[in-house]
Amino acid sequence: QVQLQESGPGLVKPSQTLSLTCTVSGGSISSGSYYWSWIRQPAGKGLEWIGRIYTSGSTNYNPSLKSRVTISVDTSKNQFSLKLSSVTAADTAVYYCAREHYDSSGYPNWFDPWGQGTLVTVSS
Amino acid sequence: QSALTQPASVSGSPGQSITISCTGTSSDVGGYNYVSWYQQHPGKAPKLMIYDVSKRPSGVSNRFSGSKSGNTASLTISGLQAEDEADYYCSSYTSSSTYWVFGGGTKLTVL
Question: What is the pLDDT of residue B41?
């Protein structure tokens, strides 16, 4: 059974870069028809998709964050990572990594499983 | 403001049925059968409950069902149990450049 676990600093200073890693266990990140996504949730608010990566390295980002986001993958470590630059208090949220399923037409279908989430606070 | 519209809260008594709506547009909910629903208990990660509008993952109770009519998808929970009390989020693929849209979430209270 595939499991995902986020890791990284819980506190980031304004204007700095938020860096998180998602470690995939119980299966290879390179197997199957999956994208690997990052999603965030500010306290008391809804979910926001940040972006995704395929194991080939191709990426897609939410246009609202695209200028600040970089997602990368390290298949040798079974990990993928998120970098969000020039952070502000508005980036304070719980960040989740998730496996994104897609069908034979290439359309993304659903997210499962999710990591447990990690709270990142942007504050000086 | 979320792209998909859900009621902020719904409630029901044990044993009853409730339905949560999720309204989008023809660019997302109405245009594709890629609607999914997630259950989130406080402090926990979202859990997939329904995918492709009406399909249930293995292990999810058959008390949970999904449907869609036009631009509105719905999640119905029958035989409400105390453990169903949680937040529920809908999501959909969108043909816009954002790829995914989510609802704002619905808090289900089991009275």
Answer: 94
